Every structure is written in structure tokens, then in C-alpha cells.
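Margin note: ligand = pyridoxal-5'-phosphate.
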Amino acid sequence: MEPFVLPANAMRARRGIKWRRYGDAVLPAFIADMDFAVAEPVQRAVRRIVDQQDYGYAHREDRDRVEAAFAERMRERFGWEASPERTLLITDLLQGIAAAVVAFSEPGDGVVVQTPIYPPFLSGIDGTGRRRVLNPMVDSGSRLVVDSDGLRRVVDERTRVLLLCNPHNPSGRAFEREELDAIGSVAFERDLVIVSDEIHCDLVYPGAQHIPTGSLGREVAARTVTVNSATKGFNIAGLRCAVMHFGSDELQERFRRAIPERLLGGVNAIGIDATIAAWRHGQPWLDQVMGRLRANRDRVAAWVAEAVPAIHSYPPEATYLAWLDCRGLGLPAASPQEFFLREAQVALGAGGDFGPGGEACVRLNFATSASILDQVLERMAAAIRQAAAL
Ligand SMILES: Cc1ncc(COP(=O)(O)O)c(C=O)c1O
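Resulting structure:
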């Protein structure tokens, strides 16, 4: 077994939501945390803080180091010149997204998203009193793709923000340059601010690539706010440290005028050191993890093809999430999520939460050991067989 893979008993001893929410009988494959030990450089950084009981206020210098490490990583991995001066530390991406929506639109204005979409995007729009504008992705026959004509159609006079998930959760798409250019054109034509959530940028499989929205070209970059962190790629979501990058001084100034700095709070000092360690020294660990994730992704694809061909699913190009359309199964429960929780004791993400059209789907997190993944898939297949026999 790879050194970073943790067995179920080690996972159950953790206090996070993933293994505690549904109790011991259920295998959790819902929330996007990985069942893996973290990279040693991250552990070392956290251990140093604990050993030295270094729990005071973070020094401005260390906050600057996060911004510098972000710019360096974006340049090295994606060829994107992010600006440390236009980077702001925030505690988490959802905070940054909500703050950007408030800064760049008024109550009642539209915020457009590509559905199905990570549910907090939708609740973030509702929670800030903005209006959901939905542009469903379309099935190309080999993957879900952005419908740019649809985007042009649904964006109305009062749509101000385009909330993009790049790479896309839950479809697992790493968008092609053409798709991003088409999105950028609509944003330019309709004067939209793009808020691009790139938290899954480090989890892209060979054959696909991550293209930062802020790298697309001057006009698009200038209207793009990027939110990102090391938390998803390096499995440190509880440490609460993220960045928000403004593609132009003007955008940053508009944000500053709209959102008082104090409302953004302060970033956790442990998160700061862990983030720097992850971005600067965590890549060898991440390379190994990507090997496991890739094998698991292929395992899920083979399982769909061989054991449950009535499920419709495309292997993700990025993320450790599989989006499974269960319509063809004709399940007896109100939703497939309820069915698998009750009949298979497997907890999955409920597709209905990802917007209209997702009701017959579930999202499966496959970032676990080969053996736990096998158990998850066997339990699901057995429950399906049993339901079909009734
Ligand atoms: C697309 C996306 N954005 C944001 C988050 C959560 O980020 P944070 O915990 O920094 O708010 C997740 C977590 O799974 C995610 O998938």
C-alpha cells in the first residue's frame, strides 16, 4: 500500500466530518476530503508550530510569503503570472466568492453558473440575495461541456457576475481553452466580472490541463477574480487559508471600496505555514497521490462499464469526484443518494443539491484506498442487484 493511504480505522479515529457524520456502519464518499496522510513537509510545518507553541499573531512577512508562493506556483505549474500585490489572503474560497458577489453586484442582480454545480455556489448566490442564472452544461457524447450559446441566452441585463468552477465540480471537467475563451467573450460582451474558483487545479490527470482563467488574455484577466488554495490538492481543508487574486488594479479597488477589510477577518497562522510548505515542497507527495487517484478513477470507470452499465458517467479529467447519472437504474427511492445510504450504507453527494437536473445523480468521492473504494463499489452494486431482483 502507498505510504499516504490510511486504513479505515485510522480514518474513523479522525474528528472531521467525513468519517463522523454517518457513523461506523456507513462508508463515506460524499464530502471532498481525501483518506490520505498529508505531505511530510506540511506535517513538519504544523509540528513546528505545535512544538514551539507558536500560536500568536502571524507576522506580515509570512502572509506575504503565501502571496509569493502562490505567484511562484502559478507561474511554474501553469505559466500564469499572478501578481502578489493583487493577491489577498482570505480564510476560505467560499468566503472569497461571497465577498466578490457582494462587491460586484447588487441584491436582485443575476449571478450565472454552469449546472450541475458545487452546491455552495448556489447557496452563496441565494444567501447574498442575488438571483441564480443557470446555464446547464450539455452532454457532448463524451463529456459535459459548456454551452456558450446557452450562456449568451441566459445572461440578462441584470446579470453582473459569472461564477466559474475551473476545473469543474462535479463534472470533473478541466475546461479547454476554446470553452474558456467562449466564456471570456460573453463576460466581455456583457460586462460581467468572472469569479473563478480554481481549488481543484492541482488535481488534473494526464491528457488534460488546467488553464487559469486569469491567464486567458488581458481583457478577460482584467475582469477575473481568482480564488484558490492548497487545501484541496494537499488535503488540509480544515486549516483555513486561501487566496483571492484580482486581475487588475481597478477590480481590486472596486472590491476594497465595497468590502471593509475587517469583514474578511484574519487567516489562521497554521494554515499560512501549511500552505507555504504544501506549495513549495509538497509536489512529490502530490505526484504519488495523483497516481492513486488516477488508478481509482479508472477503477470507477471500469466498474460502471462492467458492473452497472445502466449508470451514465464520464471519467473526470480533474478532481477525485465521479458524477454518476443513475436515471437508467430505475431505483425505488426518492433519490439515488437516499437509496445508496439506506440500502448500501454508502454516503454519496446528493445530485439534487447541484441544481435542477441533478436529481437522478450522485457524486462519488474516490480519494481513498483501493480496498475502501472496492468495498464502496461492491456495496453499491449489491444494492442495485437486490433492488432489480425485487
Ligand atoms: C469547487 C470548490 N470550491 C470550494 C470548495 C471549498 O473551499 P473552502 O473550504 O476553501 O471554502 C470546494 C470543496 O470541496 C470545492 O469543491
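Residues 201 and 210 are 6 Å apart (CA to CA).
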